[in-house]
Specification:
- The protein is of the alpha+beta class.
- The protein contains 28 helices and 22 strands.
- Strands 3, 4, 5, 6, 7 and 8 form a six-stranded mixed sheet that branches. A five-stranded mixed sheet has the order 14-18-16-17-15, with helices on both faces. It has a four-stranded antiparallel sheet with strand order 20-21-19-22, covered by helices on one side.
- The longest helix is centred in the first third of the chain and has 35 residues, at about 220-255.
- The chain is globular.
- Mean pLDDT is about 75; it is low at about 1-35, about 135-140, about 370-385 and about 595-605.
């Protein structure tokens, strides 16, 4: 195998130089024989292209000389088998050359420049995209795996042939997995099931998808595979007459109607039977739709005519009809599906499709090459999964971390989809479980970032609402709105997740830098300097010295670290003052005196004024939930930014005892610009409508309810309700509590204090 992970049968420990004993004549002749077989499949290429492929074969054969696969065959048989699979998909000469050379860089010491010189840049790029990164660059196997997949998927987004060769490579490795030591089966099969099969499905390569699943299941669960295989064979023999009867009846009906159709039997794969049994907790006898038929017809109209004929012959099972022709699947798949109750009450599934749909259903993205001649504008390829490939590039643009990138991509390999409509009736396909926010980001990242509300089928809904098939979704945006961190808890698509994270990181960095600058300036005032030295040529030397002292790469990074609490402003200020004093700048004694006598007794870093506009750089502690009017203190948590507590908060007191130098003085602004959340405990006499009365009282007092908790225990005569409400300040909070106390059924209302009620 080529690229991403070292899982190739017959590579690594399994690959060995030729043993002293000569290989068998059959093994020695395998390479020549299989290349002859490959040549027979290249009839769609012209003579010049075939010669190019032959040239790549000769080069690969020489490069792999002396390497033997675990089966005892010459190693070159593997690249030839991969190229043969690519020839099945009618891939071009460049792809076939890359398939033959795909292990040359990794295993044979061939360099990329050498490949460019001999075979041209496009072929070298394909081979490079398939080649693993050097493991010495990574600390862990997981890191290597994530980085390798990132490289492969990005190469694939630029050129889809990379993944087609990769999947052909993995398919051949799985076919020959029996020759590999058994202890490797689990790892290789799990990876195939979790990664390669879903990629094949996402790109519409149905035949490859089914084969990879089946081979992985056979090696991952050999005992279950064997038991299930025997059960299916038995059932097949039992129901053979019945299935043949259905086929005869259906063929007769189409003949009578004068329709030219091709009917083929279709059996569920053992893995899909196993998964259905496992997920739905069914016994084998309860899985009824193991058998089915494909009806291949000349035109789209014939698909619907065939459906009507079948529904007249047998009763359809309600809810089991799907029209994937009008609404294709995300990977380009089109067919009509219906399940009918056949003779003896056995359910039989039928799929109606045209010949062109059948090719796409089996070969997906690869069908673009099969139909290249008749699809000059290339729109077919654009429809077949390449939008997903483009989204990989978008995610990479936002996410530089390989593990995070792979995390996003795995989400998008979820095969199920829901189909929803924009208000202008455009169809959008999203993963099952996708929400309104995912929909907004799938239209455009600017729309996602500015989403404030949404309507589904004309009704206002929360942004976390999951979409269902057929929903008409309308998104409301506001120019000042920004992504909410809470969205990460429910978004389903990798694109939405990466865009939100990127925005929050950028925002947090900018705000932390502003806070850091403010804190350093205030700490400098305590040292007797009116303001920060400017970032100009005159002070360039001072800043460079200070950065060497702190180990920061730039002024912006230093200020961000101070804002995040990773560095203490007073220590940096003292060092900066020492450097300035060496240059002859004297501290202002009057300023020092004024700062020290007016500052908080425990604080030597000045004061931060809070008005609620600080967003990511300042957090208000959930243990005590301070509101304007409370006495407050600020704690510079390591990497968390500034966390604000009430003065009497037990958590803050513990931190002060342990980490006093990290506390700074904070004050409320005269006019905060937003409400702040705090906790209320309301004890009520339980009865009909009591929650509604309490909620109405809070609304009349102009307090917004952010959260309500009624506890897990069953309602007693007296029940505690815990609310989180947003209030303007302490005076407003007191007015809210007075309103609650006057409400019928309320026995007690009080603010929730840290460590208590």
């Amino acid at each position: 195998m080529s690229a991403v992970l070292d899982t190739t049968p017959g590579k690594g420990k399994g690959k060995r130089p030729a043993a002293p004993a000569l290989p068998s004549p059959a093994a020695a002749n395998a390479a020549a024989a299989s290349f002859a077989a490959l040549t027979a499949r290249l009839d769609y290429l012209d003579a010049g292209e075939v010669e190019q492929v032959r040239k790549a074969y000769r080069f690969a054969d020489t490069a792999h000389l002396g390497q033997i696969r675990a089966s005892g065959e010459p190693y070159i048989t593997h690249p030839i088998a991969v190229a043969a699979q690519c020839a099945e998909w009618k891939l071009d000469a460049q792809a076939l050359m890359a398939a033959l050379l795909h292990d040359a860089i990794e295993d044979c010491g061939v360099t990329k420049p050498e490949l460019i010189e001999r075979f041209g840049a496009p072929v070298a790029e394909l081979v490079d995209g398939l080649t693993k990164l050097d493991k010495l660059q990574f600390n862990t196997r997981e890191e290597s795996q994530a980085e390798s997949f990132r490289k492969m998927l990005l190469a694939m987004a630029r050129d889809v042939r990379v993944i087609l060769i990769k999947l052909a490579d993995r398919t051949h490795n799985m076919r020959t997995l029996d020759d590999v030591p058994r202890e490797k089966w689990t790892r290789i099969s799990s990876e195939t099931l979790e990664i390669y099969a879903p990629i094949a499905h996402r790109l519409g390569l149905n035949q490859t998808y089914r084969e990879l699943q089946e081979l992985a299941f056979r090696h991952l669960r050999p005992w279950r595979y064997t038991v299930l295989s025997k059960a299916v064979t038995k059932a097949r023999n039992r129901r053979r007459d019945l299935i043949q009867k259905v086929q005869r009846e259906v063929e007769g009906a189409f003949e009578q109607a004068g329709m030219n159709v091709r009917i083929a039997g279709r059996e569920k794969t053992l893995y899909s039977v196993y998964r259905k049994m496992d997920e739905k907790h069914l016994s084998f006898a309860q899985v009824t739709d193991i058998y089915g038929f494909r009806v291949i017809v000349p035109s789209v109209i014939d698909c619907y005519t065939a459906l009507g004929l079948l529904h007249q012959m047998y009763k359809p099972v309600p809810g089991k009809f799907k029209d994937h022709i009008a609404i294709p699947k995300v990977n380009g798949y089109q067919s009509l599906h219906t399940t009918l109750v056949g003779p003896s009450g056995v359910n039989v599934e039928f799929q109606m499709r045209t010949e062109a749909m059948h090719v796409v259903a089996e070969s997906g993205v690869a069908a673009h090459w099969l139909y290249k001649a008749s699809d000059q504008d290339g729109e077919g390829a654009d429809r077949l999964g390449t939008k997903w490939l483009q989204s990989l590039l978008d995610i990479q643009h936002e996410t530089r971390d390989a593990a995070e990138f792979w995390d996003h991509v795995k989400i998008d390999l979820f095969p199920d989809a829901v189909y929803v409509f924009t208000p202008k009736s455009q169809i959008m396909a999203l993963p099952r479980g996708a929400t309104v926010v995912d929909f907004a980001y799938s239209i455009h990242s600017n729309i996602g970032d500015r989403t404030v509300a949404a309507k589904i089928n004309g009704v206002q809904v929360p942004l976390r609402t999951e979409l269902k098939n057929g929903d008409v979704v309308e998104v409301v945006t506001a120019p000042v709105s920004t992504p909410n961190p809470a969205w990460l808890g429910f978004v389903r698509t990798g694109r939405a997740r990466s865009k939100i994270r990127h925005h929050l990181k950028t925002l947090a960095q900018a705000e932390s830098q502003d806070l850091g600058e403010k804190l350093l300036a205030q700490a400098l005032r305590a040292e007797g300097l009116e303001k920060l030295p400017a970032d100009d040529e005159e002070h360039k030397g001072i800043w460079e010295k200070l950065l060497r002292f702190t180990g920061s790469r730039s002024r912006a990074e230093l200020l961000t670290d101070i804002g995040l609490g990773k560095r203490i402003a007073s220590i940096v200020a003292k060092r900066l003052m020492t450097m300035l004093a060496e240059r002859g700048e004297k501290p202002d004694a009057l300023l020092i005196t004024r700062e020290r006598y007016t500052a908080h007794e425990n604080v030597s870093q000045g004061e931060v004024i809070l008005d609620g506009s600080e967003n990511a750089s300042v957090q208000f502690a959930t243990c005590c939930r301070p509101v304007p009017g409370d006495g407050i203190v600020g704690y510079l948590g390591r990497g968390e930014g500034l966390v604000v507590h009430t003065e009497d908060c037990a958590v803050a007191k513990r931190l002060q005892h342990k980490d006093a130098e990290r506390f700074i003085s904070v004050e409320w602004a005269d006019e905060p610009i937003r409400p702040f959340e705090t906790g209320l405990l309301v004890t009520v006499v339980n009865g009909k409508g009591v929650l509604a009365r309490v909620a109405a009282a809070l609304a009349s007092a102009e307090a917004d309810i952010a959260h309500v908790d009624m506890g897990d225990e069953r309602a007693q005569d007296a029940t505690d309700l815990r609310f989180v409400v947003a209030v303007r300040d302490l005076t407003h909070l007191e007015a809210v509590i007075r309103t609650l106390k006057r409400t019928p059924s309320v026995m007690r209302a009080q603010r929730i204090r840290p460590g208590g009620g």
